[in-house]
Amino acid sequence: MLLLDLTHTSHTRAQTGIQQVARALHVALPEPAGITWDLHAGQWRPLDPWEHANLAAREAGGRRGAYWPWSARLHGAWRKITGATPVLPPADALVVPELFSPATAAAFPALFRAVRGPKVALFHDAIALRLPEHSPARTVARFPAYLQELLAFDGIAAVSADSRDTLLDYWRWIGVKNPPPVIAIPLGLAPAPAAPEQPPAGLPVVLCVGTIEGRKNHLALLAAAASLWQEGLRFELHLVGLAQAETGRAALTRIRTLQAEGHPLRYDGPVDQTALEAAYRRCSFTVYPSLMEGFGLPVLESLARGRPCICSGRGALGETTRNGGCLALDNVDAAALTAALRRLLTTPAETAQLAAAARARRFRTWTDYAADLTGWLQTLRRT
Q1: What is the CA angle 105-107-111, rounded to 5?
Q2: Cβ atoms within 10 A of the Cβ of 115, count?
Q3: Are residues 121 and 84 in the same domain?
Q4: CATH number, domain with residue 256
Q5: Which residues sit opposite 288 in a β-bridge?
Q6: What is the DSSP string of 353-365?
Q7: Would you report the helix, strand and coil content of the chain in percent, each value rounded to 5?
Q8: Could you tell me if 374 and 29 are in contact, meaning their C-beta atoms sit under 8 angstroms apart?
Q9: What is the mean pLDDT of each run of 10 residues along the chain (383 residues)?
Q10: Which CATH number do you get for residue 165?
Q11: Same domain, 117 and 219
Q12: 50 and 84 both lie in a single domain
């Protein structure tokens, strides 16, 4: 039996990258037992039905943070008062796919003692340290301790070679002599419905899927779109994604300003899967202006639907773009994005070539990812 720590994801319906990974693993891993650190009961326990319902949710979620209804808080307090101790299933391994909180980290020693096999954490990125000016202040402050806490695991599964190298470089920099093994296992994708090869006739639509936050670089994208509209180029920019209140505020303000000026700019916020698939079907291509990623799921999700993507060709995104279907940029500032958007909007033959390259690619599934992860688990020793 494999324990899967879903402390955060089981308490939110948000569909950001880490939540997508956690939910996918809950389905793809062989017989995973989802567990949570119940801060109100002060104990680890299997998931309750309402937490399983959160995991199964496919609708758009508007809250990134963990939410505990009052009934769950009271139930946890009652468990604590009565001393009721839930029994975790016998565990051969533990997988922690989330960016965990200090409270959860403090509770890991008790959980580790209950696991007779290897304990593995997924590592997504260190963007909070690499781009602190574009990250929430609390995340930046938290990150050095988090990277130290990862040393307690028997192995770390990084989501890309870039993330693996970043973690190992950081540990070397702080003087860690014998870190746990770190492997790069690229993520998988859910099956993608076939999108029509040709988008609908009419005004071209450029789609951008991703959370509205500082490092996603929407301000540069909006500046590029405004410049092209001023030139007289006709297209709609369609934005989809949950907004991060702290670092996405400036982009949200700019979106409202451009809309008030009458530009063809649509922002839907977070949407469910049905609406997202409809957005892919109606777009000509996508743009993902992010400055830095640990992996970059939205790029592959676009390519899997036969839609080319404009994005950075550096770091983890460079790993994603190298097999075709992308217009990869050395720089994702406003000038570079303006040129790239103009290029694909005015040369449909090149857009069609990139779309054909995207359709020719073969993509890893979550089943592939789970098989690679569990195979690696079997090679690890418990510390």
Answers
A1: 110
A2: 19
A3: yes
A4: 3.40.50.2000
A5: 311
A6: HHHHHHHH----B
A7: 45, 15, 40
A8: yes
A9: 94 84 93 92 92 80 73 87 82 94 95 94 95 90 96 97 97 96 96 79 94 94 98 97 90 97 96 92 96 94 96 95 95 98 96 95 95 95 63
A10: 3.40.50
A11: no
A12: yes
